[in-house]
Amino acid sequence: MQKQLLNPLKIGSLTALFISFTACQAIPKANTDPVIAKPNIATNTPYHVYDDKTLSSSDQPSIASQHWQDFYHDDKLKQLITLALDNNKEINTAILNLQKSRATYQITDNSNTPTVGATGIVNHSTIENQDKNPRTNYQINLAMSAYEFDFWGKIRNTKQAALQNYLSSAFAKDTVKIGIISSVAKSYVAYSYNLAKLQLALETLKNREESLQINRQRFKAGLDSELSSLQAQALVDATKISIANAKTALLQNQNALRQLVGVAFDPELLPKTPVSKITNNQIFSTGLPSELLLYRPDLRSAEHALKARGADIQVARANFFPNIRLSATTGIASTELHNLFASGTFNFGITPTINLPIFNRNLGVQYEVKKIDEQIMLSNYEKSIQSAFKEVNDILAIRATIHQQIDAYKSMKQANDKNFDIANARFHTGLDNYLSVLDALRNQFSTEHNLLTAKQKLIDSQIELYQALGGGMGYDQKPKFEKQAN
């Protein structure tokens, strides 16, 4: 009886001895307070809004809650965006990265599931100088791979890290999509206004060439000095430069759209007139700053990446503890094939394994590296939050004055048109020379050109505000697996 108790006692003593050795490793304390980013920005107070077309209030939902198909109303633009979302190479790369993260998570999730394999063995052997007849042994075995007991949370946290990395990739893909949608919209708008600037320059060139002919005729007739002709020529050349610049910009806009869309598209999808209205929204609601943490996928991606680094720390901590695995085999064996399935041929074995870290300095170093990685990720996360707030506030600053600029350019255009009429009338009645008319023509073109730029800037601010607030990838659109991560 005493002999039967000896083995368990030995095992218990050895286990206690190993655990005491393990204590030689300085095991870090468990972190019961997970790291949470706390941006040094007031997130529950409204944005500083300076124009009557923008609203920041908890009573009105952010425009970021609108799907892009609801926010944009231009049908041609929607078709281009749809093509881009289906064919853009950057989105394809983001999707592949997401698929890779999903596969990694699934591999990790299945990593501790026991695997069973079957083997069949036929062994022929002889003993030299003793037995001329070979001995044959037949075996069929089933083996279960080493199953690790997750007493310390290593496997659980490894799965959690893989899950958080997958969710980070899912939101990173949404970030790419938002950027592509915004870029397509802005390139579409830019094309329309550069086309308008080209048309303005072509019309202006026609008028200025007529003016140049008049000045040359008057100079030949001795009615005016050559100065008027030279200034008229300078205006013609300046207009030709504007035409060349507009054509270059149009080609660049087309190139940008082709790259964004990823496939050839019907030129009829390009706008023919300046885009004066990109959305049906009359009031642009920003919501509260705190909603950025929910609506912006880049911040959601950074948040999950931070959680993944926290899980990595727990995995590194679990490495300080014993690793306990269990393997098992079962099978049948016989020297005669026809007796292989007879009684008495069955065999079974079970093998527990304990791996105890005693002196391993690398464990401590690896743990510290994971902690530093988390601090780096935390710093990047907080920086991303601050950058997001700055983006929104910069756009609000543009919107604060853009309507005033447009109104001022419209008033200036009316004044310049009237100034041209007066200067032209005074010239034809002989009260003034043609230099006043040339000045009026120059001011007309400059004002109309700047007015187009200001109108484009207004439309761009609507696109950029929508993107900066979250771009329609709302927090209700959760990726698969996110619920089990919360």
What does this structure look like?
With 486 residues, this protein is α+β, with helices and mostly antiparallel strands. The protein folds into two domains: 31-112 and 152-321 and 362-483, Outer membrane efflux proteins (OEP) (Up-down Bundle); 116-149 and 323-355, Outer membrane efflux proteins (OEP) (Single Sheet), CATH 2.20.200. Helix content is 61%, strand content 12%. It contains eleven helices and six strands. The strands form two sheets. It has a four-stranded antiparallel sheet with strand order 2-3-5-6, with no helix packed on it. A two-stranded parallel ribbon has the order 1-4. A hairpin with a 3-residue loop joins β2 and β3. α5 packs antiparallel against α8 (297-318) and α8 runs antiparallel to α9. The longest helix has 68 residues, at 361-428. The radius of gyration is 38 Å and the shape is elongated. It starts with a helix and ends with a helix.
